Amino acid sequence: MTESRFDMFSNELGARFGKRFASASMVIAQSTLPRSTQELVGLRASQINGCGWCTDLHTKEAAAAGETAVRLNLVAAWRETTVFTEAEQAALALAEEGTRLGDASHGVSDETWAQVRKHYDDDQVAALVCLVAMINAANRLGVIVRQKGGSYQPGMLASLTS
């Protein structure tokens, strides 16, 4: 197994940035958007972007928060399952379309946006949009430095915001 290219957490500038990034993410975490939805969205975007560290993080945080193994294992194929609510499906569609901006000429479709608006209030919509932006930024950081998944322990990032 190859090592990460660079340890952002042990670099002074990287650590300072990480602390601020985590603080911005706390705004989303403390919103009324259900934590399970937050973790599912983070997991799905991380799967798409191939970020092992973020996939590891969101899988373990979701499990620690009580998410079932069945739902976690089916996130990648959520359209072909019966285990996600309509609201969660809307959030997962937003995550996919907001992550695959370069793959689609429409970005986030009007249909997906209408489903998100149907199921979430304004604060939750803001949290979802910010979450998709933040997880994509985090994925890019992880992929660029090849931060490997497998070592994450639930709650590890909490120390960054204290």
TrEMBL record:
<dbReference type="InterPro" id="IPR003779">
    <property type="entry name" value="CMD-like"/>
</dbReference>
<dbReference type="GO" id="GO:0051920">
    <property type="term" value="F:peroxiredoxin activity"/>
</dbReference>
<dbReference type="InterPro" id="IPR029032">
    <property type="entry name" value="AhpD-like"/>
</dbReference>
<dbReference type="Pfam" id="PF02627">
    <property type="entry name" value="CMD"/>
</dbReference>
<dbReference type="InterPro" id="IPR004675">
    <property type="entry name" value="AhpD_core"/>
</dbReference>
<protein>
    <submittedName>
        <fullName>Carboxymuconolactone decarboxylase family protein</fullName>
    </submittedName>
</protein>
<feature type="domain" description="Carboxymuconolactone decarboxylase-like">
    <location>
        <begin position="21"/>
        <end position="97"/>
    </location>
</feature>
